[in-house]
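Quick one:
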Amino acid sequence: MKSFTVREAQTRLGELLADACRGELIVLTEGDKQVTLEPRGMVDPEKDGPDLEAELLKAVNGPHQLFSEGDLRKLAQKALAARRTGHEQ
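Output:
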């Protein structure tokens, strides 16, 4: 097992990821918080498909809302007007 503070790990992140992918347990600490780096296998559609699909659906149906065509037109018109008058944000 290797343990590093986040500050120490910043300059060695590529090396630490490679070590973790080879099976080495890497622990990163910041104060009293700890996380470990561990390798992930390839996605197996037979095994991971339902879980992956559920996560993707959560992302798509997440806390955002779709814009209507009218909303998009208003936003575009507002942006163009601001650009013409030099009041871009």
